[in-house]
Amino acid sequence: MRPQINAITLAVRDLDAALRFYRDGLGLTETRGIVGTEFSGDEEHPDGSVVMFTLEGLTLALYPASELAKDAHLPRDAVDGHGFSLGHFVETREEVDAVLAAAAAAGGQVTAPAHERPWGIYSGYFADLDGHLWEVLCVLNQG
């Protein structure tokens, strides 16, 4: 396997609401909206409806579940077995704060307010409409 990830698929309860959250609330505009509606499913085959956003680079970080739960201010069982967070890197503290505010305004929940970490980052967490965790962070004192 090559060391790359090309797509992350998040399971959502309401496709329209999720589209509005990410496109209108967070400003991810590189999308055609809901596509694949012409492929209706049945009990055996899935429906083709999907939303895809074109993003820039991706970083995959591995973090112990016990630490992720503490960092995101969630109970341990909320991340056991399947827990992870998506990381969104920005340039400044102000951008961290702005993204967290946008997520909250769009209906998401800030689970951990932004603050400075002893390991040299400023970050906070939000959960989207379906509870998917995002960490928004900037590296302090780069170079």
Concise synopsis of the structure shown:
The chain contains 3 helices and 6 strands, in the order H-E-E-H-E-H-E-E-E.
Can you describe this structure?
By secondary structure, the protein is an alpha+beta fold. The protein has a domain at 65-139: 2,3-Dihydroxybiphenyl 1,2-Dioxygenase, domain 1 (Roll), CATH 3.10.180.10. The chain has three helices and six strands. The strands form two sheets. Strands 3-6-5-4 form a four-stranded mixed β-sheet, covered by helices on one side. Strands 1-2 form a two-stranded antiparallel ribbon. A hairpin with a 4-residue loop joins strand 4 and strand 5. The protein starts with 14 loop residues before the first helix and ends with a strand. The mean pLDDT is 86.
* Structural class determined from secondary elements: alpha+beta
Uncertain runs: none
Which class of the domain at 65-139 in CATH terms? Alpha Beta
Helical residues, percent:
10-25%
CATH superfamily of the domain at 65-139: 2,3-Dihydroxybiphenyl 1,2-Dioxygenase, domain 1
